[in-house]
Amino acid sequence: MPLAQTPQDGFDLDVAVVIVGAGAAGLTAALAARDGGADVLLLERDENPRGSTSMSQGYACAAGTKFQKERGIDDDADRFYADIMARTKGKADPRIARTVAENSGIAIDWLVEKHDIPFRMNIAWAGFFGHSVNRMHGMPTKTGEELHGALIRAAANAGVDLVTGAHVDLVYADPDGRATGVRVRRSDDTVETIGCKALVLATCGFGANHEMVRNHITSFGEAPYYRYFGHEGNEGEGIQWGVELGGAIGCMDAFQGYGALAEPYGIIVNYETVMHGGFTVNVEGKRFSNEVADISGQALNVLRQPQGTGWIVFDDARRALVEDLPEFRDLASLGAVRSADTPADLAKLMNIPADAFLQTWAEVERLAAGAAQCPFGRDFTGKAPLSGRLHAIRTTGALFHTQGGLMVDEGAQVLRPDGSRLPNLFAGGGTACSISGTGVDGYLPAAGLGTAITLGRLAGISAAQLAKD
Ligand SMILES: Cc1cc2nc3c(=O)[nH]c(=O)nc-3n(C[C@H](O)[C@H](O)[C@H](O)COP(=O)(O)OP(=O)(O)OC[C@H]3O[C@@H](n4cnc5c(N)ncnc54)[C@H](O)[C@@H]3O)c2cc1C
């Protein structure tokens, strides 16, 4: 039973602000609520918080940061908003898009300056995929684990009470939709009830809930063998509670896909291998897409190929860009990277028709020389042709993270379908509707963490204010 009436004899414990889910959104909300002077209890179902945040590459997009200004990058909320609307063909919710555009830079600067989160700009980021300027902020190690660890440390320093092994399985509410508390099931199966003045839902999206995916994300109809590669705890509970309390949902068919998940290893292949001149072929040895047009939509492009797989082909120069990353080291040690001195030998190692692959190879050389037009519209000129020792990794398409969720206002407060606010419910990260419009192709790189920390911060500020009032 996900919702219940407030217990008549009260709760085991009362706290001003309860936050459910200790990923980027929940931790950021907790930091902001502590900054606002509230007592905060952060409840996380896993013993060791990981979430999709730890699985990610740790990049967050944000506009108008001090890092951008130092580098002379001309960016602001209007430009970011315009990029969101262009990428989503106007389908992103304008209010949420505007809120994220206006607050993302503030959130990054605040995390860096007030809470020592080691964001920096990724200068090497070559592809913007809809960002008209470089607004990629990431960790020195380029890992979500580093970001997650830094947020957890900051939360401890700020006095956030983080309880792990604490699965929230019930929300208590009054008939007017006011959330009054939650029930927590601990790892040893004991239960506790906790009352609150404000409740922040940061349980991410619903990627691990296959029924919800089936009901909401129709584009997998043509490619039903997708891999879900987000956190297994993201079962959409926060979104469901929000709806049961009377909240509205939006953009439920939107998701972040990725066409470069090593198959069958389930490890990310860093896309710099492709962006800088690598390419992808299917098991017939043929290219099938503009690999750099849409990093998220490439998931469906790959899944639509025979066997739902492709091979990313690159060389030593592109390998050098990524080989120090932990995930690439894992791929190499597991034997996922096939290497050869000639295209013909590489085709043998990929077990694909050599004739077709050699034709593709020759065509890519012509494209790089500007002597032919790519049928998929990719511009290879300006990239050195692949040469020297060659490499290939087999990949498939994956669902990383759902993008639809609860509709929120400028303070990340959850809205009813008529636009009025639920009394004390807030949402951020994958639990809130994102800025990706509909389907797979509205996702701007690093929008997942960008919105998680931006809406998380706003939810924390609003929840602390409400609890104080
Ligand atoms: C492989 C991968 C790479 C990615 N790379 C990037 C990237 O580089 N940049 C980017 O912007 N985005 C990226 N994303 C997306 C990004 O990770 C997410 O958008 C972001 O982590 C969402 O943060 P969150 O706090 O909403 O969710 P999460 O980090 O998933 O946190 C949600 C937490 O809630 C907990 N929880 C769920 N239900 C309950 C419950 N009932 N009770 C208690 N706890 C609960 C979960 O255990 C989890 O710890 C990537 C995603 C994946 C999978």
TrEMBL record:
<dbReference type="InterPro" id="IPR036188">
    <property type="entry name" value="FAD/NAD-bd_sf"/>
</dbReference>
<dbReference type="InterPro" id="IPR027477">
    <property type="entry name" value="Succ_DH/fumarate_Rdtase_cat_sf"/>
</dbReference>
<keyword id="KW-0560">Oxidoreductase</keyword>
<dbReference type="InterPro" id="IPR050315">
    <property type="entry name" value="FAD-oxidoreductase_2"/>
</dbReference>
<dbReference type="Pfam" id="PF00890">
    <property type="entry name" value="FAD_binding_2"/>
</dbReference>
<feature type="domain" description="FAD-dependent oxidoreductase 2 FAD-binding">
    <location>
        <begin position="17"/>
        <end position="445"/>
    </location>
</feature>
<protein>
    <submittedName>
        <fullName>FAD-dependent oxidoreductase</fullName>
    </submittedName>
</protein>
<keyword id="KW-0274">FAD</keyword>
<dbReference type="InterPro" id="IPR003953">
    <property type="entry name" value="FAD-dep_OxRdtase_2_FAD-bd"/>
</dbReference>
<dbReference type="GO" id="GO:0016491">
    <property type="term" value="F:oxidoreductase activity"/>
</dbReference>
<keyword id="KW-0285">Flavoprotein</keyword>
